[in-house]
Amino acid sequence: MQQEKAERITITLPPDMLSAIKKKVGSGSYGSTSELIRDAMRLWQKREEEHQARLSIIRERLEHSAQNGTPVPLKTAFESIEALHKQRIKKNV
């Protein structure tokens, strides 16, 4: 696999973030600031992909729900939820 050409950028960080980066690089956990930032970006990208996947599943479930079953008026739904909540409170007393 051929690596893409890297592009140099400039970023501004608050002192606490910069200190944490320097500390990790200084401890030998990372070979360079760039290596740490690339690792952080990979983690962020993974988190974003997982977030998008979760949103996609939620959207699919909502669409499935909208296409199936009988619609329930919002007031009725909240009344049912309130009744269930009261039942659970009574059981726990």
Automatic annotation (TrEMBL):
<keyword id="KW-1277">Toxin-antitoxin system</keyword>
<dbReference type="InterPro" id="IPR022789">
    <property type="entry name" value="ParD"/>
</dbReference>
<protein>
    <recommendedName>
        <fullName>Addiction module antidote protein, CopG/Arc/MetJ family</fullName>
    </recommendedName>
</protein>
<dbReference type="Pfam" id="PF03693">
    <property type="entry name" value="ParD_antitoxin"/>
</dbReference>
<comment type="similarity">
    <text>Belongs to the ParD antitoxin family.</text>
</comment>
<dbReference type="GO" id="GO:0006355">
    <property type="term" value="P:regulation of DNA-templated transcription"/>
</dbReference>
<dbReference type="InterPro" id="IPR010985">
    <property type="entry name" value="Ribbon_hlx_hlx"/>
</dbReference>
<dbReference type="InterPro" id="IPR038296">
    <property type="entry name" value="ParD_sf"/>
</dbReference>
